[in-house]
Design a protein that fits this description.
Blueprint: E1 5-6, H1 8-15, H2 19-27, E2 35-36, E3 42-45, H3 46-58, H4 65-98, E4 122-126, E5 144-148, E6 154-158, E7 166-171, E8 175-176, E9 182-184, E10 197-201, E11 206-212, E12 218-220, E13 224-225, E14 233-238, E15 245-250, E16 253-258, E17 272-275
Antiparallel strand pairs: 1-3, 2-3, 4-6, 5-16, 6-15, 7-14, 7-17, 8-9, 10-13, 10-16, 11-15, 12-14
């Protein structure tokens, strides 16, 4: 034996067999193929020689094939598995670099998105700035009534988006002369002993929907007159959840009671529409 190298005769002495037997086992694939030196002589490394001697003895000179398989396949499997794993890892790495393999993670994310509907308004949009009673009256010593059979149209709108309902009412002021002095009462008793009285005539009044909900549960007020206890008269009342839209209100009337023996002059009052 040269240091680190085992010749056929070294192994043959250890297992008590001749060199031709070892060569035959090599040709049959029972032991690894020996390396060759520069002269062509066979030799084995120390681990190879020890492994051959161990296998020969464990298999009773290759008489027990099960032990032979156990001796070599354990090592072969480990080497084989290692090679396969290396190849698979290399292939996956190459495919990932080429973008042919994608790895998905089942992730979720949420985003809250807002939209805002801005509330509109509740308002009287249209009303005449100036009107007059149907005709002038002549001086009389007795009680008279001046009538306005049709107030100008009023347009109202509820765009609040709340459905809270609303009430449109009418209020007024005492009639004044051109000197801005109160000359005719609007909330008196309507007799010769008082300065006058104004009443709202609701019977001919109508309402029509121009946009939004129809006029369901938008109710007309009742005939009423101003007095010391009545300073506002309801024209229309929209119940809760109704009256969400735009409406035209028309054809209401007014009457002004004038006591006997009035002062001959022009009387002016202010009518106010309030929606709330």
């Amino acid at each position: 034996m040269i240091t680190g190298k085992y010749r056929l005769h070294d192994i043959a002495r250890k297992i008590d067999r001749d060199k031709s037997t070892i060569i035959r086992w090599e040709q049959q694939g029972l032991i690894p193929i020996a390396k060759r030196d520069s002269r062509g002589w066979r030799y084995y490394s120390k681990p190879e020689a020890e492994k051959i001697i161990q296998v020969v003895k464990n298999t009773n000179y290759f008489q027990n094939s099960d032990k032979l398989v156990q001796s070599y396949t354990g090592t072969a499997k480990k080497v084989g598995y290692g090679i396969v794993a290396s190849v698979v890892i290399f292939m996956l790495f190459s495919l990932l670099n080429l973008g042919l393999v994608q790895v998905w993670a089942n992730e979720t994310a949420t985003t809250t998105v807002y939209t805002t509907v801005t509330a509109g308004f509740l308002d009287v949009l249209n009303a005449s700035s100036s009107q007059s009673f149907d005709s002038s009256l002549s001086f009389s010593f007795t009680f008279q009534t001046s009538s306005m059979t049709r107030l100008e149209s009023v347009r109202v709108e509820d765009a609040r988006g709340s459905g809270a309902g609303w009430t449109l009412n009418l209020s007024s002021t005492d009639c004044k002369s051109t000197l801005e002095t109160m000359q005719l009462d609007y909330d008196g008793t309507g007799s010769n002993n008082s300065l006058g009285k104004m009443c709202l005539i609701v019977a001919p009044g109508t309402i029509a929907s121009a946009a939004g909900q129809d006029t369901t549960n938008v109710d007309k007020g009742s005939l009423d007159c101003f007095s010391a206890g009545v300073q506002a008269i309801d024209i229309y009342i929209a119940q809760s959840s109704y009256g969400k839209g735009q409406y035209w209100i028309t054809d209401f009337g007014l009457e002004q009671y004038i006591p006997g023996n009035p002062t001959a002059q022009v009387y002016t009052t202010t009518i106010t529409y309030t929606i709330q």
